[in-house]
Amino acid sequence: MNLNADEENETDESPIMAIRLNQNWINTFGLAAANQVLDAIATFHMPQGQRRDEKATHLCFRFAEGSHQINVCRDFLLNDAAYKNAFALSPTALADLAALNINYPGNREPMGLCAEIYHGDTKTIPFFYK
Asked: Model-level pTM?
């Protein structure tokens, strides 16, 4: 990510979640469904008319409340039937089921891959995995 000096300072103060959409998921569920989930993330616990992704719509989400709020947002989406298709079992869970000869009938593709950028560090986070 190429950030200017002001944006880098914001990153040091507040965690940012960046999302790269999964094309396989888009092919199955559609871009409109992805945008619905991304809009829900952008407006989660925000005052009317404000968004978390104001500088990079549907790509980067600033969580001024702290990293814990990313998990709160994830849990909210995971428990709302409107967004259930965005989530998939983790590769480890799918492998465990396969080892037991259990066929998982649900979604196998997460909507995207996520990274959290905070205090200059970047780490992958399992936002779209159950």
From this structure: 0.84
